Amino acid sequence: MEANKVLDAKGLACPMPIVKTKKAMAELESGQVLEIHATDKGAKNDLAAWAKSGGHELVKHEEESDVLKFWIKKG
User: Which residues form the UPF0033 domain (predicted)?
Assistant: First the structure.
């Protein structure tokens, strides 16, 4: 999946991945995709809920080793 911006949130504990995601999303245009890399297991539920509540779309999610990867399309 092609992302317009990649956010490295590895090693950050809740709520920092969400805080950084929110800031990065503000820099994108509607329809652009943000790729997020996180290691906090709680990020899975947090980012899905955050995307939904903000009118964004969690396009894809995968786990590679200990890294959770998310692709969120800006609403």
Answer: 7-31
